[in-house]
Structure formats: structure tokens, C-alpha cells
Amino acid sequence: MTPFSGGEAAVPAEIANAVDATGVFSLIWLLVALPLLGATVLLLLGRRSDKWGHWLAILMSTASFVVGAALFIGLLGRPDDDRAIKQHLYDWQVVGTFNVPFDLRLDQLSMVFVLLITFVGTLIHIYSVGYMSHDPNRRRFFAYLNLFVASMLLLVLADNYLLLYVGWEGVGLASYLLIGFWFYKESAAVASKKAFVVNRVGDVGLSVAVMLMFATFGSVTFEGVLGRADQASEQQLTWIGLALLLAACGKSAQFPLQSWLLDAMEGPTPVSALIHAATMVTAGVYLIVRSNAIFDAAPVAAAAVIAIGAITLIMGAIIGSAKDDIKKALAGSTMSQIGYMILAAGLGPVGYVFAIFHLITHGFFKADMFLGAGSVMHGMNDQVNMRHFGLIRTVMKVTWITFACGWLAIMGVPPFSGFYSKDKIIESALSVNVWVGIITMIGAGITAFYMTRLFAMTFHGREKRWTDDVHPHESPWIMMAPVAVLAFLAVVAGFALSNWIVDWLAPVTGYEPADPPIPPLAISGIVLVLVVIGAGLAWVMYDRRPVPTTAPAGNWLTRAARVDLYGDAVNEAVFMRPGQYLTRFLVWFDNRVVDGAVNGLAATIGGLSGRARRLQTGFARSYALSMLGGAAVVALTLVLVRL
Amino acid sequence: MNWLLVLFLLPLVGAAVVMLLPRENGLLAKQVGIAVSVITFAVSVVLCFQFDAARGGDFQLGFAYDWIPAFGVQFAMAVDGIALVLVALSTCLVPVVLVAGWNDADGARGSVKGYIALVLLLESAMIGVFAATDVFLFYVFFEAMLVPVYFLIGRYGGPRRNYAAVKFLLYSLFGGLLMLASLIGLYVVSADQTGSGTFDFLSLAGLTIDPTTQKWLFLGFFIAFAIKAPLVPFHTWLPDAAAESTPGTAVLLVGVLDKVGTFGMLRYCLELFPEASTWATPVVIALAVISIIYGALLAIGQNDIKRLIAYTSVSHFGFIVLGVFVMTTQGQSGATLYMVNHGFSTAALFLLAGFMISRRGSRFIDDFGGVQKVAPVLAGFLLIAGLSSLALPGLSSFVSEFLVLQGTFVRYAWVGVIATIGIVLAALYILLMYQRTMTGPTPDVVREKVGDLGGREVLAIAPLLVVIIALGFFPQPVLDVINPAVDRVMVNVGATDPAPQVPVAEGTQP
Q1: pTM: predicted TM-score of the whole model, two decimal places
Q2: DSSP string, A502-526
């Protein structure tokens, strides 16, 4: 067995055995329809719904969560291996053998996402009532949030890859609209466009994957593709897997398509929490875990997934260590954490479950911290530079304590949630390949460094480095209540879910227990030592010593990390500048050469430019003349074909 | 009474009535024009209900009268599924164009009633060109369409209208002449084979023509259609014509008239000259892919909004031609649906661009900025229309674009992959334009001049957007009409879809 092979191509039985939706399960479509209705009403009514629009959005998001909870109870009442429900709504497009139904699928995997999306989504809706209270366009903001929730739910509930694509681009659209919410800022407008365009590069991957699936299996449904993955050639599956990986890179901000995520912080902070931390950016992880049957049988593609995850997890962590902008530091961290998930998804059946587990705990602790950062910004006149923070714990107690929960969770300090999910990924990685395991352990150390740096610079330190115009104050309860809930989950979710999640997901993702070369307890010990080293280093540097308000020059790595490890510079040098020259040249070429040739020809035969006026008045004559010319051509044709 | 004949005659009679109205009463002409176009649309809806979709490959609801018996020319019309949806597209867009362009003809060189009459005349010709089942009649309409468009550009257009109008005319005439030559050649062949010559489409499609002759005759038709569509390198007339036209004329020109080119390739090139079409496929596909990428790159480089939209259409026509010539069911159904969807999204784009231009008094993107602040409805509409143009999943164009790509991929995988790169470029040209016009700080001059859409303007655009969204989620009713007709084309051209690599088990629905 090669280090990366995931063993036999085991097709989970659940894929092919979805039962038709009856009873409570006939409500599946409501999950998507309710928030979609909210978005539609708010956008169509416009200013007329300004007064109550945000409450409607919250109502719709909550209702979707309630439906999700009811469905969850329904699923719990069914046997382990019979929890895949299919709801056929209508035939979306049928052309020849290309048959794409508008079907939704609820199974253990999508159920987990539904609960995460609607629950965290609703909390962030509530938070936004306070955060956006001074914005005249708050209603539009909530309309986009609802649109996002609807799209994300469609993404995880779709029963075929083309319908998944609709949700996939729907969340991309919502993300575009929300990053550019303050469109009158040039930077926001540019960032939103960049996010969309980079994601479209990933979409090329998704398009190609779907096309390959149809060419290979004659179907694009989960059942038709995943249920018969074992019958296709490995080469074909490898191509499909690589195309899916490209798609995942775009949406989940993985190398080399990571550059949009840091700029996406231009959007309002609740957006960063919901879309660019807890849900949308995890869509790539969903896509790979969902397509497990393909990656299980395509070891090269799975290895590529691991490589991308490993690269991004280190890159993101390094970037996060150098940023002074609190949101960008968190964004770097998000890249890195999703790197963990992607890596875990590439490990195969030993990793799928833990990719999703980490996705859930990360959804809680990262949303908690982003909203905490938002709370800090709210109290500090939208200041984001941590060099102007310091000692904020003295004025924002609730924010400080809730943020601390997230901080401990992401570092993986037991018994906080990140400990359970991250250590499981490290164990699985070690059992597949020692070097990959070591990378994940180093990543854990850097994580502790950058998070402690962020935490110390913001809440602790020796002195207040505030600018004169700020008067920090704690945020209102409508913002802090959701944060408190998330902080609570960041503490307990790992412990509460760690055994259950494996049993729950195994029927749909497959599961093999990890078999690391050293005992799990030893691994946890080593990781904990690395975490303490990383955190201690950061504490000494940013709490014990004064933090200068202007950033010191820094070494070459710091400088590189500040400019996102030259990601934008490379894009600019390789794609943007040459692209601009190319379009400029082509515009010239089209006007002068292609059109010029025709105009020149016309001028030569006494036609166009000089005598345009005469031709126009003599329209009938020239028409007749042309007819004559035509007759000549006819004659020539007849001669040529010898009729 | 034949409803198709009624549909054809209504705008023709309407045009005559409008011409009889007093010249100074422009308002009355507009009202009559809109009334006629709405009734025509209603009749086309009736026609759609009478059409039997299950037999969508057959020519239905037709009529035939002898016209020039000496040459076997008939005045014959009937519609199959493909023709029906294009006729419906035409009759749907004309009232929209008239409502949106309410003030377009005021103060132009020509009279208001002239403008209305020309639009109605054009509508009649468009119905005729799609519905003709006699190839000679098709040719007549193909050329007759030029006349109203020529005057619509030349009399009601922008500063360089004369140049643009003559350029449009010469290009089209050149193509038309080649087609005429082939048409006569085709007649001679039919006379040879059947004793008496005919122009009846079905009879001509039944001929077996020797390969060499086929190639020559094919070229005549194909070049005419490639100019009309337009395909790179025959495209340079389009940006000029579209930029100098009124927005309404641009809609009819790019949204409907150019479809005659791609429609002609599907109906006439493929079915009359199947072997020649197969022979030409590599070159045509190369040109189509070049059009997709080249048109998109040029669109990115434009500073004139209308030229930008024109170049996006060059790219989109590349997709349509690609879909037609990959000879798969998905490709051709997708291409046909694309013709319809492109009509709606381009119409919305051109009309909205027109609203922006008439407010600001400039066609240049650089003269705008921050419009969303002062005109949120205009901005929102432009965004939806733009997203449709970049084929956002959930909107109508996605369905057709993906079908084309899928249909391409199963036969020529790498061509499909290259064409897919077009979706990245599409995101760039639309969102760059949106960013430069709608977002950022609002300059004072924009704040003063650009107000939000009025009721009439919303009335014109909203139905287009509703169709764009509806067809994104429910394309099947249209596909049901198109599919049988495409099946007929596939049979006549002798092509079958490639089978999937993993065989589908017997009796199971994949």
C-alpha cells in the first residue's frame, strides 16, 4: 500500500439507497425556501421594509433552523444506515441523456451543515441588528444575509453536482454583495470583484468536474456518480478529483487561489464571521468529503488534496503571525484552519469525519472570535490596527472573556473544542504519513503563536495604545448574547460531540480508526508542548514587552507575510499586468488590423470611407449593383461545381 | 384563418397604419405601435399553446401559397420547436423595446412614426425569416431585414451612424450574395435530381448532394451566417452598428437579428449539407473558440459601454456556434436555448446602458462612477442583467451555457475546457464594468445628472429580469419544445451522442 492510498474504493451504501421524502421530511425544501423568501421580500419592498426588515430576516433564518431541528429529530429516529432522504421537486433540465432533476438530499452530512449554517447564521443575524444599527442600508444587508443562508443550504442539500453549483455560485454572489456592501469605498468594490473573479477560476474546476462526470458516468447525480465510482478508471477519477480540488481551492481560499480572502475583510465584520470563517469557506471541505467515493479511488488526487491543505495551513499561519490588522490576522488563521480540514479530507476514511468535526468546532470558535473582533471595532471607532489596541480587557470584559474561550479553543488547549478536533486530525495525519503529521504539529505551534499574539496585543499588554478619539465601551447585549452562545459552544462542542460525530457520519463518509505510530496520548503531549512554546513566545514578545504603535521593519519573513507571501504580487505580475497589456493590444489589433483590413479593402475598391454619403443616398442603386456582383459569383460557383 | 399568417401580417399592417398617421402626432404613433406589438405578442402566445411540443421536430401550424411557380418558389411558413422559440423571442422583445425606447426617436433625423413603422416592419421580417420553410423565402426575408435596420441606424443613430449603417449593410450584402449564389446552386442541384427544381426546405434536406458541391454550397451559406452571427473575424461591423444604434435597435439587432446567423447554421447548414458541415467542423469550432476568448478579452478592454456589450455578444455567439457544431444533443439544444437567453439578457443590458447614457450624456465608462448611490434600482437591474450575461447559475444563461459546454466536452474534451475559461473572462468584463460605473465615490456630475429609473423604464426591464430568473430555474418547458427539433437535426446530420465510459445499467434512470 502506498502511503496515500485510502484502501479499497468503498462506495458508501447510503449514496444509492436514499428513500423518498415523506412525513416531516417533505419539509426539506422549506429550509432553502424560507430564507430565500426573506431575501426576495426585502429586496422587492426596498425602503418600505427598512423599519422591520431585519426582524423578518431573523424570523426566516430562525424558522429555517427550527425546520432543520425538526428534521434532525426525524433523522435520529431512523436506523443508522437509513438516514438518507431524497426529495424530488421537479425536473430541472433534461436534454437527451443529460438528466438533471431539482432534487434535495438530506443525510447525516448535509444535516450537520444545515444545523451549523442555520444556527450560527441566526446568531450572526441577531448580532448584526446591533452591529449594523447605524447603517442606513441595514435592510439590504439582511436581505443579502438571507440570500446567503438560502444559497448555502442549497449547496449542502443539492442531490446532484449541477444543482450544488447553483448554491455554490449563490454563496459566491452573496459574498460578492456583502464584501462590497460599502460599495462607495473603492477598496470594498475592488475586493468584492476580486473575490468573485478568483472564485470563478475555481468554478472552472467545478464545471470541468461536472462535465467529466457526465462524460464518464452519463450522470451528474450523487447516486449516478458516487454510487458507481468503483466502475470508472482510476485515471478518469483522478482528473475528476483534481478538478474538484481546484473548485475547493477557490471557495475555501486554499493555495493558489487564497488571495481573495484577506481582501474580503473589507466587508462588515458579521460577514467575515458568517461567510469568511464559519460557513462558505468550508464549502470546499464539504465538496471533497461529499465526493469521498471519488477520492478514495484516486490516490493521486487525494495526495494533491493533502499537499494543498498542508501548504495552505502553513502559509495562512505565517500570514496570520505578521498582520497587525485584527481581521486580517483572523483571516490568515481561517486559511490555515481550513488547510487543516482540507488536509484531513485528503487523508481518506481516517480523516473525513474529523475534517467535518474540525469544521464544526472552527465554525463556533472562529465565529466567536470574529464577532469579538467586531465588538472591539464597534467600541473603537472601527479601528482595526492592533498596535492601537492594548489592555482592552479593562473596558470590554464580556468581549475579553468570550474571546478568550475562542483563543483557547483554536490553540487546542484541553478541554476546549479545538483540542478534540485538531488532535484527531494530527493523529490521522501521522497514521497516513509521518511528514504530513509533523507539518500539522508545527502548524499547531504557529497557531498558538499568532493567536496569542493577537489576543495579547488586543486585550493585554503593558499599556493602552489607543488613539485620542476613541472611548471604548462594551457592546450592547444584542451583540454580546450571540457571542456568549458561540463562546460556550467553543468550550464544550468538542467534548460533547467527539464520539457522537464519528458514529453519525461514518455511514455516509466511511470511517477507519487512525493507527498512528506513537500513542495518541503522546501525540497530545507533544502538541501541547508545541502550543505552550508558541503561546509563551508570543506572550513574552507582545505582553511582557511594549508594542510599538508603528510596525518595526521586521525580518524578511515578516515582511513577506505582511504582503500575503507575495500572493498578490505574483498574481499581478503573472496575470494582471500581462492581461492588461494583452487586452490593450487586442483592442488596437481589432480596430487597426481586423477592422482596418476590411476598411482598407473597402477604401481600395472605392467603397466605404470616402464615399459613405454617396453610397447611402444611392442605396437602391448600390443594392442593384451588388445583386449584379452576386450574379457573377453565382456564375462562378456554377462553373466551379461544374453543374 | 392561419395564426402564423396573422402573426406575420399583424406588424406589417401595423407598420402601414402607423405610416398613415399624421407626422406631427408622435404620441399616437407610439401608442399604436405598442398596441400592435402587444397584440402580436399575444398572438404568438396563442401560437405557442397551439404548438404540439411532443412533435416539436415537425413543422407545424404552417401554410403555403404558390409565389413564383416557374421556379417552384412558395410563400410557405411553418415552425418547428427551434423556430417557435425564436419567433416568440422576437415578438416578446418588440414591445419591450418600444416601451423602453419611448423617447429614442424624439428629435432624431427621421420622424417618430417612421421609427415605429420601421420597428414593426422589422418584426414582420424577423417572424418571416424564422418561420419560412421555403429557402428562397428565407433568403428574401434575410435580405429584407437589412432595409429597416439600415434606416433605423442611419436615421436614428448616434454621431457616426452613417458609417455604421453603411458598414452593416455592406457586410450583410456581401454575405447575402454568397448565400444567393449557393441558393441558386442548390436549386440547380434539386432540378437535376428531381426533374423540377424546388426551394422547399424538407425536399432540399432530402437530397443527396455530392461532397464537393456540398462544400461549395455550404460555404456560401456559412459565410453569410458567420457574418450575421457574427463570428471572428467577420465581427467588426457589430460594435460599430451596436454603438451607433439607439438602444432599442441594438437590442433587435444583437438580440434577434444576429440569431438568424446561428439559426441558419443549425437549420440550413447542418440539415442541407450534413457532410460538408462535418467536414468544416474543425475550422468552425476553432473560430467559435477564438470568438469566445477574443470577444471576451476585447470586451474587457472597452471603455464604451455599448461596444462592451457588443463584444460580450461576440463571445456569446462563439458559445452558440460551438454548441451548434459539436453535433451533440446537449450542444445544440443548449445553443438554441442560448439564443433565447442571450436575447433577454442582452436586451436588458443594452436598454439599461441606454438609460445610463441618456442620463449622463456619455457612452464612456470612465464618465460614470458611484451610480449605485444615486440610482439603486438601476444598479440592481444592471447587476442582475450582468450576472445573467456572465451565466451565473440560477439565471437563465447558465443552463444554456453549461449545456453547450457539456455538449462540447463529451466530444472534444479540451475544447470544452478552453471554452470554460470564458466564464472567468465573463466575470471580469461584467464586474469590471459594474465596478467602474456603479461603485466607488459618486462624482458631482453623476450626482446631478443620473437619477433612478422611472415607472416606464422599470416596466420595460422588469419583465426581462423575471424571464431571466424564471428560465434559470424552470428551463424545461422551453427545452421540451426545442429538444425534438434538435433530435431531427441530429438525425439529418447523422450524428449521435458519445456514450459515457461507464455504461448505464439497463432500465435504470441515471
Answers
A1: 0.92
A2: HHHHHHHH-------SS-HHHHHHH
